[in-house]
Amino acid sequence: MEESTSKILVHDDQVAEEELVGEAPELDALEIPDELPILPLRGVVVYPHTAMPLTIGQPRSIRLVDDVATGRRLIGLVASRRPELELPGPDDLYQYGTVASIQRLLRAPDGTIRLIARGIARFKLGEFFSLEPYLSAKTQIAPEDVEEGVEIEAQMRAAKDLFQQIVDLAPSLPKEIVGGVLLLDDPLHVAYTVANYQRMDLEEGQRILEVDSTIEKFQILNGLLSHEVEVLSLGQQIQQEARTEIDKVQRDYFLREQLKAIQRELGEGDEQTVEIEEFRKRIEEANMPEEPDKQARRELDRLAKLPTAAAEYGVIRTYLDWIVSLPWDRTTVDNLELEHARDVLDEDHYGLEDVKERILEYLAVRKLKSERGEEGVFEEDVDEIRKTREGVILCFVGPPGVGKTSLGRSIARAMGREFIRISLGGIHDEAEIRGHRRTYIGAMPGRVLQALRRVESKNPVFMLDEVDKMGRDFRGDPASALLEVLDPEQNREFRDHYLEVAFDLSQTMFITTANWLETIPEPLLDRMEVIRISGYTESEKIGIAQGYLIPRQIRENGLKPKEVSFTEAALRKIVRAYTREAGVRNLEREIGRVCRKVATQIAEGTAKRVSITEKKVREFLKKPRYFGSEELIERTSIPGVATGLAYTATGGDVLFIEASSMPGSMKFNLTGSLGQVMQESAQAALSYMRGMSEKYGIEEDFWKERDIHLHVPAGAQPKDGPSAGITMAVALASLATGRPVKSSVGMTGEITLRGKVMPIGGVKEKVLAAHRFGLKTVLLPKRNELDIEDVPEEVQKEIEFHFVDTVDEVIQLALEDKKPTTRSKGKTAPDKPEKKARKAKKTGTKNGN
């Protein structure tokens, strides 16, 4: 670019002033030639009747100034349309410029020239007749139109007033320039002088130069001046508000300091001193271990040195409040009377003998250790590795509605401890367990320490509900954070991210609940003692309804005990026809529906007392939802349908596996949302049956000329696992032989390609499901025979168990007697005598739920 400019001339000691030859001529006596050297300007417009400092840096511009300085000192100043160009050409310049006279010239050590040019008149560019060594062009003077009258006088006064306001609002403009502007009488001089000092865009400045009418120049200028006044006024208002806020803070600070001085004179402590002393007292009373005690005192010392207005003051105060509020040494005394604990557990829950037995064992051990510890029987801990562990971590696993969560409350009541419950379902953030570090705004401890603070005890019964439903994402893995909480070797020094000191969780009794073990990480599962809670039998559900559910629903629905009663037959009808679940939640809902019907009748005055019978159940609950053995008979009447037993997150269940064939070319289709393991079991069952076709009298071309479709209904529900292997084999055998499966038989077991039946899990839950559905015979792997001891005695009496070792035994026991068919070509496989059914041994134990 040719020139850079500034409104204020910069003086430099190293800049040498050069004397110009001859005296500067009077401006009025100047004759302006028709041809002028043209000096392009960068981002600035020079107006007539104004002076402007310029800095010359380009070699061709320096050459131009050197030539002009020895002559008449007149140059043409024209603004460039494109300020970014270093060497603009004729096409890059505006058409109007200003003839200027060089008034003063200074040379700097860096080779640049600083000069002051004074505008004389406006001109219009003509033809360029020289481009080297610098631009030269023909010019034509273009005088402005200066109108007379009231309008131009008003415009001029408005411009002066606005300019004075700008000078008053803008500290960068010297006050002296206002006086010079106010003394001017020529409208054109006023317009150009004010425009010279006013900040504006290049296009707007050039437009003021180019318009002919002086009134129009004022109109453009006054618009720009008005906008500038608004901007400067708003900026001053913002600064004033900020200054007022700062003054208020300083005033408050001084007042607080004065208040402190007055309180000291009166012998009273100020608010901060009182707060510091209160924290000091709470630290003494907290009886914290050495590490947190030191940390608390260190933070208290920092707090005492900070002003209350400091941002960190509130952070430290909140931290101290948390650390002194935790129950570092506050515990509840355990009630170790075993009879009392047994009575409480039996009063609150029906059955669940395994859980009750484990709690009584825990209390018995605590009681012996307490009594014998006082007698000095036990030696003190030798070291940290051999240190005695105090806490217990249990995991209750079972289907929904069997009483896992309510068991926690009963255990706390039996032991005389506080009870806490937090739900882990859907948690994705590790900070929910361990808390946030104090560097974050709004940081706080994790939910573990928050709960302990609420109950004010370090040895409560702490229930972590739905531990199998935690998630993980970019915020961390809550299950990994729980490893420290649920590890007896580590939780005596649990470190929350917020507190940053060790807290002892070893005396806390942790109980977790889950519906499904498969989703719990192995390292976390390894730290817990798993207690399985199976579903209830029919008689247990009736007992729970009579002892717990009916009284609660009577109270919740505003009834009196004498106003409604349920017969045992009615309850059995509800259990069989309206619910099919492992727990009792739906049973309680149906009882609640009946109670609401009764409440409506009593409120309307149509009845005073209602006895619920089977007939009333049908009247109140309408049509049944489940049909028991009728459904089994209907679905298994067609060859190719077998009844299997499954174990799900909601307890045991019955699966109907259907097989069908159609003309085709040996295709095998599997449907029903089957997992990889279940699909492989189906392939193994098909391979086995094809290999044993001759033994069961199946035509050789049956598999070659037909497509087989195996389907497991409830297609929307994902299914997986190997335990349906023998059921699939039986379904295929039934399809191929035309022999239906016995409607009263259910089965479960894994199959191998050699026809062996392998053991499976969840036997108790599967048998209870078979009992709920009305199955009379259950086929189980031989190696699961001992698992029958866990099945309630009443169920063992009503179900006939067969323990099988091969698929051949399963097929012989499951299929109806063989009938001759045209497909068999007169060949029949020799019938083996059925193995004598072995009844499961009666253990005499109650349900371990």
Fold topology:
Layout: E1 3-5, E2 16-17, E3 35-41, E4 51-56, H1 59-69, E5 74-79, E6 96-107, E7 113-130, E8 136-141, H2 150-169, H3 176-183, H4 187-197, H5 202-210, H6 214-265, H7 271-286, H8 290-305, H9 311-325, H10 338-348, H11 353-374, E9 392-397, H12 404-415, E10 419-423, H13 431-434, H14 447-455, E11 461-465, H15 478-485, E12 494-495, E13 502-503, E14 509-514, H16 522-526, E15 529-532, H17 538-556, E16 564-566, H18 568-577, H19 585-604, E17 610-612, H20 614-621, H21 629-636, E18 641-648, E19 651-663, E20 668-671, H22 676-691, E21 706-711, H23 725-737, E22 745-747, E23 750-751, E24 757-758, H24 763-773, E25 777-781, H25 793-798, E26 800-804, H26 807-814
Parallel strand pairs: 3-5, 9-14, 9-15, 10-11, 11-14, 16-17, 20-21, 22-25, 25-26
Antiparallel strand pairs: 1-4, 2-6, 3-8, 4-7, 5-6, 6-7, 7-8, 12-13, 18-19, 19-21, 23-24
